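Researcher: Next entry in the queue.
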Amino acid sequence: MRFVKGHGTENDFVILPDPDGVLDLTPEAVARLCDRRAGIGADGVLRVVRTKAADIDADVDADAEWFMDYRNADGGIAEMCGNGMRVFARYLVDSGLAAPGEWDVATRGGLRRVALGASGDVSVDMGAPELLGYGEASLAGVAFQGRRVSVGNPHLACRVDGPVAALDLSRAPGFDPAVFPDGVNVEFFRSVGERHVEMRVFERGSGETRSCGTGTVAVAAAAAQGTPGTSEWTVDVPGGRVTVTLDGRTSHLRGPAVLVAEGETRPGWI
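Model: Structure for this entry, 270 residues:
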């Protein structure tokens, strides 16, 4: 099995080129690939497949040539991944499967338009974040109030007063499964300047990650609530910095995407 390793602000992925949709990618295989001690190690897997060849249980737009089949580190299927989308687009251009410029990629969360040159940052149209009301997460018995946000996948963005580095995210935050029946990505964020926040995230199916693209959009939307017009937000995560632009109609996520290695798994390992 051929693979490429890449990351976006240290949110890292195993990329599996499968243009004709021939891989039998089981949850167990994904978990083995993502295992940081016994596998390649990653927060998730990006299967690169042509939309017309994608055998998936989801309605996708066949007008996009490529489909991003994203799996969390535990093998579970996810709707979207903002950092993964940037890495996915970088792979397509660097491997000659797409030309630099702007084009759409199909996901389980809908079409996402990407824009990139031959090098540098990648921008993704993430769609309009949907504010859904309020919710609650808990850490070590302490309750945190948050804003429920959908960015094609579920988020709970919780504002905190102190540095996010002080939080213990070694265990999953508690939440109400009746409110989040499919699980939820939980973000904790703090304002550190004008339209500038820091955040940490615990992703469903992966644990704490160094960054989460959809999570940065959710946090920007929660922080910007009530801000009129277009606003640009700087979001610092443990793995670096991204920019989120909100204009009332959609959102754009811009940041780096880096490919670091490629190779093949040994026969019979997966």
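Model: The chain has a mean pLDDT of 94.
Researcher: Noted, moving on.
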